[in-house]
Amino acid sequence: LPMRGRTSLRLLNLLSPLIASPAVAFPRPPALSRGLCFSSTNPLRQNRGQYGKLVMAATNFKVACIQLEAGKDKKANVANAATQIDTACKEGAELIVLPECFNSPYGTKYFPEYAEDVTMGESDTAIMLSTKAREHGVFIIGGSFPEKDNDKLYNTCIAFNKAGDMVCKHRKMHLFDIDIPGQITFKESDTLSPGDSPTIFDLSEHDGPAARIGIGICYDIRFPELCALYRNSGCNVLVFPGAFNMVTGPAHWELLARGRAVDNQCFMAFCSPARDDTADYTAWGHSLVFDPWGDKLGELDEKAGILYADIDLTQVVTRRTNMPYHFQKRNDVYSLESPFLPKKKDKK
Prior knowledge:
Layout: E1 6-8, H1 9-12, E2 23-25, E3 37-39, E4 56-58, E5 60-67, H2 74-90, E6 95-97, H3 111-114, H4 124-136, E7 139-141, E8 145-149, E9 152-160, E10 166-171, E11 177-180, E12 184-187, E13 199-202, E14 212-215, H5 224-232, E15 237-241, H6 248-264, E16 267-271, E17 288-290, E18 296-299, E19 305-312, H7 314-322
């Protein structure tokens, strides 16, 4: 019999098969005392792992979205993030989410200066996140910060399990290149390179709740195919660090977050930096969380703060059972194809 507050992964993923994506261990970076683990560069093309097995996992957990101020002092930014993680953990948060570019100002001229080499272990930011995850025994989705890899720069989100191991890394796939005359012009591609793969963080593979999380960064949310890919891969939670501005924020921030939650019948957490009217780039703020029905579980204003939300993953099963539109799609008319999804076998 299922324990109270727990259910089987087989039940939770009844409406969308879980495709496990076990982490792949890389050599230990010289600057870290602990080894780092990364998800495969092709995270959805793995053996099915736990699917079909009766595995007990919690269905309820508390998430904390930390809306941080980020100035030009990187050490101060990282220290502040560490302090706020401590605060969130004292309030019982089990999953910590940080905002986009939390260790630096957001701007193409800042990315080269603030970039860190995560793969080689030359990252004080990654070390802090690993230390805090291990210290408190929590999961951390570390917002994003500029990452250096050889001669390329990326806008990168790294995630840690409760042991402090880095288990996945998402590089922003869709770069923020826009030109709205008289309002805002921004071109991330002037300095950044795009990532080339989706990223799933399955907490149940690391002694956590039955949350299978699809990760994206900011502009990624404007591409519904990515979230649909996560839905097709068994995700029941979407987490997107983001930094919308004073033009796109009022217009689309809440709209897109709620839309993705409803489209995919999953929880959606959208975590922003706090607003700084003196910065080169002014963030909208308003971190928020939606449930699979599109109800808002909480929202911050523009100021620094922590948003807590209680997640009940059985709601995903309920909504997907009551309205199974995932299975009512006209695949004979349209379909989602991706090299990261298993190919369908031809019917004989």
